[in-house]
Amino acid sequence: ERDWVPADKVVETTCPYCGTGCQVEYGIKDDKVIWARGAYGPANEGKLCIKGKFGYHYVNSPERLTKPLIRRTGIPKGPLNGRPIHEVFREATWEEVLDIIASKIREILDKYGPAAIGGIMSDRSTNESIYAFQKFMRCAIGTDSIDQSATLCHEPSAWSLATQLGYGAATNPIRDVLNSRTIIVVGSNMNETHPVIAAYVKRAAKQGAHLIIVNPIHTELARYAEYELLIRPGTDVVLFSAMAKYIIDMGWYDKEFISRYTEGFEDWVRSLDAFTLDFAEEVTGVPKDVIKEVARLYALEKPSMIMWTLGITEHENGTENVSALINLALLTGNVGKPGAGLMPLRGQNNVQGGADVGCAPGRLPGYQPLMDSEVRRRFEEVWRCKLPSFIGFRSTEMIDMARRGLIKMLYIVGENSIRSHPDSKAVAEALSKLEFLVVQDIFMTETAEYADVVLPAASAALEDYGTFTNTERRLQLTRKVVDPPGDAKPDWWVFVELARKLGYDMGLRDSTDIMRDMARVAPVFSGLSHERLEREGGLQWPVPSESSPGTLILYADGFPRGRARFRVVSWRGFDVVVERLYPYSLIIGRERAQYHTATMTSRSPVLRVIWRGPVVEMNPEDMRAESIKDGEVVKLLSPAGEVLARVKASTRVPRGVLFTTFHYPELLANTLVPAVLNPITKTPAYKDTRVRIEKVNA
Ligand code: SF4
Fold this sequence. Notes:
Elements: E1 9-14, E2 23-29, E3 32-38, H1 50-54, E4 69-71, H2 85-88, E5 89-91, H3 94-112, E6 117-120, H4 127-141, E7 146-147, H5 155-164, E8 182-186, H6 190-193, H7 195-206, E9 210-215, E10 227-230, H8 236-249, H9 255-261, E11 262-263, H10 265-271, H11 277-284, H12 288-300, E12 304-308, H13 310-313, H14 318-331, E13 341-344, H15 351-356, E14 363-364, E15 368-369, H16 373-383, H17 395-403, E16 409-413, H18 417-420, H19 424-433, E17 436-441, E18 453-456, E19 466-469, E20 474-478, H20 491-501, H21 511-521, H22 530-536, E21 539-540, E22 564-565, H23 576-581, E23 584-589, H24 605-609, E24 615-618, H25 620-625, E25 633-637, E26 642-649, E27 657-661, E28 689-695
Parallel strand pairs: 6-7, 6-16, 8-9, 8-12, 9-10, 11-22, 12-13, 16-17, 17-18, 23-27, 24-26
Antiparallel strand pairs: 1-2, 2-3, 4-5, 4-18, 14-15, 19-20, 20-21, 23-28, 24-27, 25-26, 25-28
The structure holds iron/sulfur cluster (SF4).
């Protein structure tokens, strides 16, 4: 693990984990990664967190998939349950497996049409591979049911930002937080999830910025804050709407900005009548004097920045929460200036890029609408194909449709859906009902155990060349560090070859060629190329021409849709019946040393030493009231399912709130999350699942 151990070569690339996009150097010896250390990049300035530093062992793992696998005849789909992989699947060549997939696709198209096929792509992959996937699905198969993990996390951010401002992305560079005088961090434990960004926020607070933390559980970052608002889960929209109303009542809003750049102000102001300070105090649990003071700081101590992660978005009303933040920024003119902006912090290395390159239903690369006739004409001409004539489904909808027998084939790339989607039992049922399931991944996962064929992928981060887009819209190169194991292939290669088998030549020879194709069809990428990124380093889109330096701060010269829009938001109240039956609010989050379903991080001996384990954190007073001892195993029950969990006493969670993660297979927390989705983005409510507790031996 020591970066002074001599390496055969040192390669600089981009960290494969979170959306910060830290630059990292890997030391390579005998074609294996032997260490990692921080390299200078605009987002990290040489820093790395523990995952970036010690999370690379998965690349060298002997458990990597190395050959295409085909399910043996007569073996039913489902968990391996300890059986060796080769009892259930047989090895095949790429030629054989691609022929089988192509013939199955043709059969399903003949029987049911293109709407019966859907694809879920990994945001861990490169922009180039994700772009190739959506082109393959749309042109070679003819379906628009394509999605990536944003639906499970930040799609409410992307949707509200795009609808109200123009682009579904963060407005400012990460480092710009150092120019803010007031910073609100809401629904984010960034010290654990984005430690390098948290370091900038701490630095800003030490320099004198007013730091305000809004979260239902205590976070370490709050030690640097002037105010910590322990908000009742699911009530963010009330807090931020009450702040807005108070700012208006006090006359602290930016009248010139509103009249010059926005629309819908009057209607929105009228909609705020109900959000009084008394109401907000009662609903959110935050004292009204604190709400007043935080509103004053945000409106008057400018420039002000709002940063958030999934504590805002993973709710049934996630789009309302994000819109409430955008409304507040527009009200006070905190957009389009240094230090002032809206910063959703993206969780996956390339979840921003996945949406940018068009892997979402109805959205072609560069956020161009599929149903716009002029856009369609242009794309069909360049891509030489007929685009789907229907808007497809999001991943959560696809799983539901598979369960109901309406989708017959899924192509899942690098997503462990059984662990990452809500209602794990329903996902398993959906996967077993499919006529054909293709899974492409770097390891055998719980989801791959249901597959008809499993394709071995090269790791996008270390075994392929391309780009990732970080949380500040910066495209950065990821370089090939080592060769993929066995017959594993880059994701884009598989889509290009499969398209060829189906009779469609995608016209893409390699990753650099794909970037050229992206720049041809999407104006936000027009000035980008691999050559330029090699020469100049990462650039933030929009990059409209080769002479453009990229866009540091969005909306500095106005809004692409003409005027920014205030959006009326509402709060639907508490469901008192559900709250009585299920008195605890369970928050499913993350911990610093693990990443999502831990497919990669669990392979690191260093990260395994410091993991917290499959526990549910509970306030000691609640434990006393329920007669539960520290370490006791209890049953958690929700309207969707039940799991056994070991309780850990924790004072960071307040009474009535429980916290766990979805990192551990021993505690399938998402089993508890009902598939209650945001009506617009179909995002699940991982951050406020109602549960009750039963003692196991009662
Ligand atoms: Fe990697 Fe994110 Fe950690 Fe940076 S902060 S090293 S990008 S996991």
